[in-house]
Specification:
It is built from 3 helices and no strands. It is mostly helical. The chain has 2 domains: 33 residues; 67 residues. The N and C termini lie far apart (100 Å).
Length: 103
Amino acid sequence: MVRKHQIWTRVRQTFGLVAVMLYSGYLLVDTLSGDSSIRQLKALKEREASLLAVAATVHAERAALEESVNAMRTDALDADRLEEEVRKMLGYAHQDEVILILE
């Protein structure tokens, strides 16, 4: 009877150890390749960096456009700038100017 009790104790201990090892293995695999894995974290950080670069570019473009719009307001209107914009948009030129069309 004592021998049978020792065997069952050993089986329970072994089963417990195997269960803990399997669960640890599952956690390791999930950490490396699951939805919240290290790979996913790295990919998200790379995406964040690229989106921050795009945001910086858009911010710079917006600042340039705001500066251009502010320069065209009537209270700060520059005659040379106005003439330059009109000539560019309408294709006007003076008689003594030479126009080079580069395509």
